Amino acid sequence: MRPHALAYPLLSTRMSDYLQLTKPRLNLLVVFTTGVGYWLGVAGHVDPARLFHAVVGTALVAGGSAAFNQLYEQDVDALMSRTRLRPLPDGRLTPWRAFIFGLVLSALGLVQLSFGVNHLSAIVAFATLLSYVVWYTPMKRRSSLSTVVGAIPGALPPVIGWAAATGTLSREAWLLFAIVFLWQMPHFLSLAWLFREEYERAGFQVLPVVEPTGRSTARQTVIYTAALIPVSLGPALTGLAGPVYFAVALVLGIAFLVLALRFSRDLHRRTARQLFLGSLVYLPLIWLFMIATRVP
């Protein structure tokens, strides 16, 4: 077989490894929520070039953050079945390559946001990068509060989109932040319950590991989900979205709360999975109806 015939699958594999460093499935949500924030900010009057720079720049920063996260956690990733085949613990990429890759992606994304959109969106993206890599990632091994801390960078992408569209951080931006922040708590707590044995083996101090009975997990899940209902109605009450959105958000919020209550009463893998899957349905529907009923 000719040497160049072997080069293509090797190149393809290496590109796939670098792509895995960016956590593409997770960062699809980042890209989507950034686009939502931008769309809501411009009220549908989209500048395609500006939207492109906002979304791609944020995606690059998010990908760089994910690479730094995997670099820091390569030792514990090797201990969990769902992460042990990632490029770093499996030895397919060296730590130095991952570091350079994360640095280049992050820098390119920040430059693209700063000069292709505006400086404010780049500043918010930089705050997202720092809080995720420097604050949240090391804290996962030290405290169950890391879930709350991690929800901060997770909730900033729509703020980046809003800043890209308006050049401001108005109350609407922080309302979008609050919706995603509160949504993340039942989303991640249900996931942590599903994988609590693996998290314990890896040394992650998530709440289901710190408090194995699940009482605190159940209580916090219900509290955050209940708090999400009035906050999710905020866009309609502040004029960001219309009355149809209000009705849909109320119904979806109650349904989400029902799933959280079921989980709290019966801490089982089945109810945790139902809550997790429900969270995956809830947020896209909230965004879609908010976009569809956006008040000019």
TrEMBL record:
The chain crosses the membrane at residues 26-46, 52-72, 93-113, 119-136, 148-167, 173-195, 221-238, 244-263, 275-295. It comes from the Bacteria. GO terms for molecular function: protoheme IX farnesyltransferase activity. The lineage of its organism: Bacteria, Pseudomonadati, Acidobacteriota, Vicinamibacteria, Vicinamibacterales. Converts heme B (protoheme IX) to heme O by substitution of the vinyl group on carbon 2 of heme B porphyrin ring with a hydroxyethyl farnesyl side group. InterPro entries: Protohaem_IX_farnesylTrfase (IPR006369), UbiA_prenyltransferase (IPR000537), UbiA_sf (IPR044878). PANTHER family: 4-HYDROXYBENZOATE SOLANESYLTRANSFERASE, PROTOHEME IX FARNESYLTRANSFERASE, MITOCHONDRIAL. Pathway: Porphyrin-containing compound metabolism; heme O biosynthesis; heme O from protoheme: step 1/1. Gene3D superfamilies: UbiA prenyltransferase. It is a multi-pass membrane protein. It is found in: Cell membrane. This is Protoheme IX farnesyltransferase. It comes from Luteitalea pratensis. It is an enzyme of class 2 (transferase). It catalyses: heme b + (2E,6E)-farnesyl diphosphate + H2O = Fe(II)-heme o + diphosphate. Its EC number is 2.5.1.141.
